[in-house]
Specification:
Helices cover 34% and strands 15% of the residues. It has 17 helices and 15 strands. A 6-stranded parallel β-sheet has the order 12-11-10-13-14-15, sandwiched between helices. A hairpin with a 2-residue loop joins strand 6 and strand 7. Helix 8 packs across helix 11 and helix 9 crosses helix 14. It starts with 6 loop residues before the first helix and ends with a helix.
Amino acid sequence: LPKYDLKWIRKREWITVYEGTLWMNWRQIHFRVQQEAGNTQGYPMFVVDLPGLYDRPGIYNDPDGRPYGDEVQRYIAFQQAVLEWLLSFPWHDRPRVLHCHDHHTALIPWMVKYCPAYQQLAPIPTVFTIHNGQYQGMFGWSNGDYLPPYEASAKWLLDWNGIINPMATAIKTAWAVTTVSESYLYELHQNSLGLESLLRQEWRKEAGIVNGIDAQVWDPATDPMIVQRLENEDIAGFKLRNKAALCEWFGFPLEWPLISFIGRIVSEKGADLLPDTYRRFIQNGGRASFLVLGTGEAWTQNEFRRMAYDYGGRFNAVIDYNEALSHQIYAGSDFLIMPSRVEPCGLNQMYAMRYGTIPIVRSVGGLKDTVPDIGESDGSGRGIRFNQFSIEDAYYALYRAVSMWHNEPGVVDWLRKKIMAVDFSWEHTIEKYIAVYRRIGANIAPETFVEQTEEPAPLPAEPTLPKPAKAPRKASKPKAKK
């Protein structure tokens, strides 16, 4: 990672493992690569210290919310610094895969192929993951001088519709391209702000892999941030006591279902759909309570504040980023709503199911992949889905959820038990990434994990995915050349 000036990073101790310089547009830039002392995260974590470029407030924006004007220089310098560091490795210690994420690192697959300074790293397979195709890192050719020297024939790989588009460049040059869910990959083929034809052209090297969650951090049996932990598989007692705490704090009736929203209050997450939907539901006599936690766009935040005043005891909002409260809301809510316009993967629905909270989601991206509707004939349902981004569709989804709560408590109990047993951990996801690495010829040894005997057996209704096919034999030719 770049060494951002963040509280979390400042509190850690860092040990310098490499110092170097790079040239950018006739300017010499000094940098340091540092490793976190003690590897407290459970793995080696490295940051690139680039004085003057990242030691400033915020990540992408200044404290006033304005984007920094030197983003192009910042991320090109970061990518070059990483490659300079890798060149210092002995040949046998170099990485087996360069896995780059989003436009901030999207030029690395191109640099190792076409920049003479880094072509020693060209034999290393490259993978590029798109987390959000809305942000492609585009910049004009007037900033092209910031790039390291490259082969003249490679210029066309940088260009997309007359400007430099790092995301497009990575899609062209990476050995494999992934997205963070299967449905999001198909959605990008239909709408990716001008990259649709390119993604369709490169479909042979693409794959959609749903993200995972940290099952140790998000564990209802050990979570230190909630009032009542899960004990002796008593799901009903676990949910009731955590809900009672929320109802006491916010003045909600315990006998009504509690429907919550957690996340950024922005249009991408569909938060602007909720005020009018909630108003209609409450004014029509719907028997449910609503809670919102998050920060974001001023207009929607103010709408939520006004509703908390108008509908006391039915609606409340905490306009804040509060991790401890989010854990309690996952544990104590009956439903979690995610009406996203765009959702490449989504993690909140996985956190919610881990704590027995039934998701209400729009059928988009990773939400579509992880939350089959309870009406599915094959019994795979995990929550309630709606298709159109409209008040009518969202209202009907709320109606279905509240009707189920009041009229079919047995179904609610059954569904809670079912969704809490689904394995969304990274251990389940890693196998799919290893399959991608091997498919492009990376020499990746199989990872072994300690089997957890207490993990519940998979439900019969959950289909098992077929194992990926092995790479074809003709991939052995590069080995002979090497």
